[in-house]
User: Which sequence fits this backbone?
C-alpha cells in the first residue's frame, strides 16, 4: 500500500488533546455541550477528547462523504447519516479529524448553524492550510501540518490505517507499518 513515516507520535497527540480539552472545559464551564463527531475519521480523536471533558456532554455523529476512495476531496459533500440530536438552542462542538480543503467543514458548519444552535464551534486534530479552498478556520486546532497525505489516529486511506496510534505520512512504495505502530519518536520529513 505504501511506506509510512511517523509525523506525530501517540504521546504528542495525547498531550495536545489534553490542551484542547482544558481550553474547551474553560470555555464551556457551567454549560452542557453537544459534541458532534464527523464519521468516520473523527471517532478516535473525539473519543479521547470527550473522555477528558469535565462539562456535561451529549454525543452524536454525522456521516458525510466527499472523498470516496480518492486522496483529494471531490468538493461535493453528501450527508450519509444525519444527527439524531437537535442542535436548536444548544452549545455544539463539531469535531473533525482534519481540515484539508475546508469544503466539508464549511458545509457542515453552515448546515448546523441554520438549525439554530446557541453556539457552534469546531475542534480539529489537524489542519492543512496549504490545501484550503474556502476561508474556514477551526476554533480549536491541534496541529498545523504541511500538505502531506496522512493516515492513522482515525485518518485512513481506502479505509485502512485508522487504527494506527500515531499520525503518519503515507508515501507510495514499500509498506512499513511497523514505524507507525511502534515508532518511539517523530521522523523528519
Assistant:
Amino acid at each position: 500500500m505504501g511506506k509510512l513515516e511517523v509525523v506525530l507520535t501517540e504521546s504528542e497527540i495525547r498531550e495536545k488533546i489534553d490542551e484542547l480539552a482544558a481550553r474547551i472545559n474553560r470555555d464551556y464551564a457551567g454549560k452542557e455541550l453537544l459534541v458532534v463527531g464527523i464519521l468516520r475519521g473523527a471517532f478516535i480523536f473525539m473519543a479521547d477528547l470527550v473522555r477528558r471533558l469535565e462539562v456535561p456532554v451529549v454525543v452524536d455523529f454525522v456521516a458525510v462523504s466527499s472523498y470516496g476512495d480518492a486522496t483529494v476531496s471531490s468538493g461535493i459533500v453528501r450527508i450519509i447519516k444525519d444527527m439524531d440530536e437537535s442542535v436548536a438552542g444548544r452549545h455544539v462542538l463539531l469535531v473533525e479529524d482534519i481540515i484539508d480543503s475546508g469544503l466539508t467543514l464549511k458545509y457542515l458548519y453552515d448546515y448546523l448553524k441554520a438549525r439554530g444552535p446557541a453556539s457552534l464551534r469546531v475542534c480539529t486534530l489537524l489542519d492543512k492550510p496549504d490545501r484550503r479552498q474556502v476561508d474556514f478556520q477551526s476554533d480549536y486546532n491541534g496541529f498545523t501540518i504541511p500538505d502531506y497525505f496522512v493516515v492513522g489516529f482515525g485518518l485512513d486511506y481506502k479505509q485502512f490505517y485508522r487504527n494506527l496510534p500515531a499520525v503518519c505520512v503515507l508515501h507510495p512504495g514499500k509498506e512499513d507499518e511497523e514505524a507507525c505502530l511502534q515508532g518511539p519518536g517523530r521522523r523528519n520529513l
Residues 10-146 form a domain with the Rossmann fold fold (CATH 3.40.50.2020).
